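Q: For a teaching session next week I want to show students how multiple molecules come together into a single three-dimensional assembly. I've collected the sequence lines for a complex. Could you give me the predicted structure tokens for the whole thing so I can convert them for display?
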Amino acid sequence: MTSAREDILDRVRTALGRDRISSDTRTKLDRRLSDPPSYERPGLGEDRVHLFATRLTAVRGGFRKTDSGHVMESIADCLDRHGLERAIIAAPALEHLSWPADWNVSFGASRGDDRVSVTPCFAAVAETGSVVLLSGPDSPTSLNFLPEYHIVLVRAEQLLDHVEDVWEKLRSTGAPARTVNFITGPSKTADIEQTIQYGAHGPRSLDVVYISTLQECL
Amino acid sequence: MPTAASHLFKQRVPAALADRDLKAAMDKAQDGFIGKREQAVSQYPGFEALRELGREIKDHTLAHLDFYLDRYERQVQRNGGHVHWARNSNEARTIILDLCKRANARNVTKGKSMVSEEIGLNGALEESGIAVHETDLGEYIIQLAGETPSHIIAPALHKTKAQVSDLFHAKHQRYGFHQRLTEAPALVNEARQVLRRRYLDAEVGITGANFLIAENGSNMIVTNEGNGDLTRTMAKVHIVTAGIEKLVPTLEDATVLLRLLTRSATGQEFSAYTTLSNGPRREEDPDGPDEYHVVLVDNVRTEMLGNEFRSMLRCIRCGACMNHCPVYGAVGGHVYGWVYPGPMGSVLTPLNVGLEEAGDLPNACTLNGRCQSVCPVNIPLPDLLRRLRRRQHETGLDSRYSRAALRLWTALAARPALYRRAMQWGAVAMKRLAGRRGRLRRFPLAGGWTRSRDMPAPAGSTFQTLYTLYKEGRRR
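A: Of course. Below is the structure for the complete assembly, covering every listed component.
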């Protein structure tokens, strides 16, 4: 008996009315995979930071702009706005930050009962207002979904124009991470009478702290 | 495969039309979907060109599907995952059931997956004593109600808020929620609390796929709730179920289709969560599944690839065709009787369960063409429905009544002189009968039509007569 795999591939070839792909075609298709087509991308037309903030806030994400000397103030501001205590689970990648001594900060994966997480990101996308996070020991995926409030730190050089720019950056990092998360605003659902409700299963709020470079501040 | 009830279509339509709750829910939903899509499309210059590009990408992939499937499989394996192949629903269920048993699963969480509906997965798991927990809010609602999805992206579209309130009040008592909730935020919050425990308890998480990417073996899923991500992250085993037509070559190709998908489905520029899964937990990862499996399902897809319905395999399951269909809007999704409703369902259902079972579906269409005009990959749905009607006629499956009518028409149309005279008599007779009102209350053989509206009378001369006059007028 032939395997289901062979059978399905045979059926595909029969349906397409041909034998296995010729070596010429294979070379062309291989090239298409290693050098992906560059399709026209949507025009963005304005200041990238402004566009990113506009797109993000349009889907109820929070946006704060600060500089590297004032990150903690911005995080504190997010917590205050939601009426939250200084109790945070943060990605291990952020251990080096100067966390205030009187805050209750732990580092690692979430086990489900954390209220606030703070994570870094791999990239942000102006076109869509998204932050992009990669799984790994420095940035556990559970931090992006289990806590009720999610705060993401974005450094200026991480902000890219289009979704395609993220793919290019990903390819340059080598072996792919287990998970790549594009997150665009808080969790939501419209499954009850098609009316949007926030905080379905993931975080009820998403706040981005954008850390501008020195030049941008000047 | 779930049993089809498509042969009951005609029988079930009157009750659906008379259901006021259903009508209220459908009107609200369709208005919302149409308006949101229109706005999103108008804000994206070049959307038409994007549709054309989407069509090209899908056609290219389908024409080289063996190559891309093979490459995808190798990349998944390189990422530490496993690929399983299923010729039909039966094989797919067996594979998934075995994986669940090997994981000693008692609880399975599920993200939304239409393929899992197609293969009848929930029933099979439950028969083996495995509890299945749908986690998409819409899927959760209909699972509690013991129903099937009535829309491919908004499965509980047919339910009103009051119905959801009753349902939660009845079914959530056992979790210690005794208060009756009436407002949507409170209902969503209660479901969140009930389902939160499920993610942490489940041994296996099952999700679908929006795109399978050959280049690197990624599975891309697009959600708004975050349930898909919790399902795939928290369980020890993550299983993906996907039809073989979900393949795309590269991330760039997926991006084009993604821009089309979110705008066509919900009018969003981007959904809240777009996620790539690239296999099981890496050595250093503090969370994520230990095992990653992809089950590729054929289920008549290779048959469609080889016949006149290949273009249907371009479908990216956005739901725009049903959102814009007047028939779907009037009767809702359940009367279609199988997994997929609306225009795309009227093509897919007969191809899956047979025209004997689902012959009414391709006929429940006015051929107005709105479905094709909003389809993100320009599937000629009206044309495919017409082909099914022709197949039905050729295999003698249409009704004796319509065969007789067609024979009469053929006899007339083949005799131009007789045809012209018959039409002329008809037009004059209708005009006389209509009198000064210009409308007919009743018309022979069209009782179904005139029951709810009048038939407008013709002007008294036929199209051919008027056209001759028009031509003469122009010559002068």
